[in-house]
Amino acid sequence: MTVILENFALPADRAATEPPEARGLARDDVRMLVSDNGVHTHARFRELPRFLRPGDLVVVNNSATLNAAVDAHYLGRPAVLHFAARLDDGGWVVELRDPAGVPFTAAEPKPGRRVLLAGTAVTLRRPWLPPARRLWIADPDGDVPALLARHGRPITYSYVAQRWSPEYYRTVFGREPGSAEMPSAGRPFTDNLVTDLVAAGVTLAPITLHTGVSSPETGEPPSPERYTVPEVTARLANATHATGGRVIAVGTTVTRALESATVGAEVRPASGWTDLILDADHPTRSVDALITGWHEPGASHLHLLEAVAGTDTVRDAYEAALDTGYLWHEFGDTALLFRPR
């Protein structure tokens, strides 16, 4: 099968519709395709330590997932409101969705209109990323974290028919609440696997990047996201490279944060909002390999994968995954993609 990364066909039966635990698997028992210098190896995620070396650095995202979906009504029509990001002025980036988990088409969002929630409301201010009109800046009447704690649930899409408890959307690294959707590349890690990595001489270090919502409109750029690269992580990344080790990013979120903090070849402590866009023409400077889930056709994340591993590696990995039954989305299988040597 030949994959055109921007427009390949994903069979419906490749969507992971439930957590691996519901399929009788441990979190770290999902499949992992390893692509290293043109060689593909099929493994289980718990085998990750055998593909890394003493002195490598694994950088993880310690952002924790919010219960960011709340039942709503807009112009009398049932809806779900996704809270994507808190802004510096107190507003929130939000997305109206249909209760069936598909785009909301019952009425057009417009400035000044109200979205009614449980005992409160938000007022739509303006689109967040014009000319796209999927995401809006909204001004809430009340305390959004309290609203989400009481009435929120994890964001889901149409391929996940059953509601799963928030526990299934937590990663072992999640400490800083703020992500609208789970930083899912970190989901397969377990306490035992982290111990195995440390025992094998692999170092782990955190960044924080609070994810927005996925399902962008065609041609819509990745949303700006809030991030922090702490001094200790920057120092470890630079020391790893100085001693011949490799920096492995757990997810596109970690890759975006590290590259946003990289000046020349040096990672520096940094925080703020990043709108960095990476692709094959703008390769990564601080990331040597990437642990990732499998992304949908047309997803901007595919270009970020190419920035780490190159177009040929990503295309070949996707061909192999499609040909051998890998599962997609946040409850699916994984890949470890190395930069070609």
From TrEMBL:
It comes from the Bacteria. One of its GO terms (molecular function) is S-adenosylmethionine:tRNA ribosyltransferase-isomerase activity. SUPFAM superfamilies: QueA-like. InterPro entries: QueA (IPR003699), QueA_dom1 (IPR042118), QueA_dom2 (IPR042119), QueA_sf (IPR036100). Gene3D superfamilies: QueA-like. Keywords: Cytoplasm, Queuosine biosynthesis, S-adenosyl-L-methionine, Transferase. GO terms for biological process: tRNA queuosine(34) biosynthetic process. This is Queuosine biosynthesis protein. It comes from Nocardia terpenica.
